[in-house]
Amino acid sequence: MQLRPEQLAEHLARDLRPVYLVHGDEPLQVQEVCDAIRAAARERGFASRQVFDVERGFDWERLTEAGAALSLFSAREILEVRLPSGKPGEAGGRVLRALAERPHPDKLLLVVTGKLEAAARKAKWFTALERAGAAIACRPLEHGRLVAWLRARMRRAGLEPEPDAVTLLAARVEGNLLAAAQEIEKLALRHGGRVTVTEVARSVADSARFDPFELADAALSGRPEACVRMLGMLREEGVAPALVLWALGRDIRLLAEAACGDEAPETVFARHRVWPSRRRLLHGALRRHAPAGWRRLLHRTVDTELVVKGQRPGEPWDELIQLAFSLAGREVVPAPESWR
């Protein structure tokens, strides 16, 4: 079975499966999901734990033996396999499948991996673990889910935030859940009870850290205000304008091809091997301009490249903000005064 992190507490209150697979690249969710599974297991008598860090040359026979042996210290035991690469190899895949297909009644198998691509999620070892227990994907939250996550976490911390206070917190942390959790703890210690937008503005640190690909996703999703903030952070952190332009230009070229070519957009996206989650963003962005508009934006990308390379007068970051705004579907605006 598959579970979302927010479904786990209800699941664990009524059930404990013999196998759990936690995968993803959102570190706070991974940590808290694993903590919840370990706590539920301890309540049911799994008093000891063995941890197996899978690195190059790891002996999978150790896990096989642990899965069959009786614990010396307690009747029930957690076997925790940390597999950052998400690639157990042929030998590891066989061992994981065997443990999943014949679970020991006094062993709980917890496998923790990084982000898994689609091919890995179709592998036999993955599907065997998923069938025997539950797979929980821990992914960065999209903006709408982030706001709901923040509101729920603030209430669990004893806070009653104003709607604008939650929105501001989401804007400040931009998906960084670990930073968000730390800021909520600070708010709970300082205030408690009702929290206003002013109190959040005074308390919350500017914790967001971005990469150019997050900027491109913000532009595709039509969030120009987030683009301004991300570009400012990227500039402050010394990210090369050429890298930012590459991320924006990649999507602009793809959308121009989809809008102006003879193939259906979905065919173009499939040919370029675009992941389904990004296709939704691209389809939404595609509706913002007619084919002629995408051709103009493509020409603007070329002009911006000349400025970035120093082959044409202009300020690279000014040009990048105009390009991001155009991709987001908004009118061109002057660059912030702080950039000048």
Written overview of the protein:
With 340 residues, the chain is of the alpha/beta class. The chain starts with a strand and ends in a 12-residue tail after the last helix. Helix 3 links the parallel strand 3 and strand 4. The protein folds into three domains: 137 residues, Rossmann fold, CATH 3.40.50; 53 residues, Helicase, Ruva Protein, domain 3, CATH 1.10.8; 128 residues, Zinc Finger, Delta Prime, domain 3 (Up-down Bundle). It is built from 17 helices and eight strands. The radius of gyration is 24 Å and the shape is globular. The mean pLDDT is 88. It is 57% helix and 12% strand. A six-stranded parallel β-sheet has the order 1-6-2-5-4-3, with helices on both faces. Strands 7-8 form a two-stranded parallel sheet.
Give me the secondary-structure topology:
Elements: E1 2-3, H1 8-14, E2 19-24, H2 27-43, E3 46-53, H3 61-68, E4 76-83, H4 89-101, E5 107-113, H5 118-121, H6 124-132, E6 134-138, H7 143-156, E7 159-161, H8 163-173, H9 177-190, E8 193-195, H10 197-203, H11 212-220, H12 224-236, H13 241-260, H14 265-271, H15 276-286, H16 291-308, H17 316-328
Parallel strand pairs: 1-6, 2-5, 2-6, 3-4, 4-5, 7-8
CATH structural class of the largest domain: Alpha Beta
Helix content: 55-70%
CATH fold label of the largest domain: Rossmann fold
Q: Name the average pLDDT.
A: 88
Largest sheet: 6 strands, parallel
Instruction: Give the spatial strand order of the biggest sheet.
Output: 1-6-2-5-4-3
pLDDT < 50 stretches? none
Q: In the CATH classification, which architecture of the largest domain applies?
A: 3-Layer(aba) Sandwich
Structural class: alpha/beta
| Integer tally of domains | 3
| Rg for CA atoms | 24 Å
What order do the helices and strands follow?
EHEHEHEHEHHEHEHHEHHHHHHHH
- Overall shape: it is globular
Instruction: Tally the beta strands.
Output: 8
Strand content: 5-15%
